[in-house]
UniProtKB/TrEMBL annotation:
Its main location: membrane. InterPro entries: TatA/B/E, TatA/E. It is a single-pass membrane protein. Part of the twin-arginine translocation (Tat) system that transports large folded proteins containing a characteristic twin-arginine motif in their signal peptide across membranes. TatA could form the protein-conducting channel of the Tat system. It is found in: Cell membrane. The chain crosses the membrane at residues 6-26. It comes from Aequorivita viscosa. This is Sec-independent protein translocase protein TatA. GO terms for biological process: protein transport by the Tat complex.
Length: 63
């Protein structure tokens, strides 16, 4: 494995540690709200990128 991808190698222990830290920081009641916000943000990003692609195609057709 190259040195570039070495820091990106996440195993099960690292994932468990991240989950525990997130639970400690935000608590169990805030997690669903945070995930809901993250999901809606991703949906808006996808919609905006699709809209940009259709706008680019229309501009290319008019040339």
């Amino acid at each position: 494995m190259s040195a570039l991808f070495l820091p990106l190698a996440i195993g099960p222990w690292q994932i468990a540690l991240i989950v525990i830290i997130v639970l400690l920081l935000f608590g169990g009641k805030k997690i669903p709200e945070l995930m809901r916000g993250l999901g809606s943000g991703l949906k808006e990003f996808k919609d905006a990128s699709k809209e940009e692609d259709t706008t680019d195609k229309k501009l290319d057709e008019n040339k």
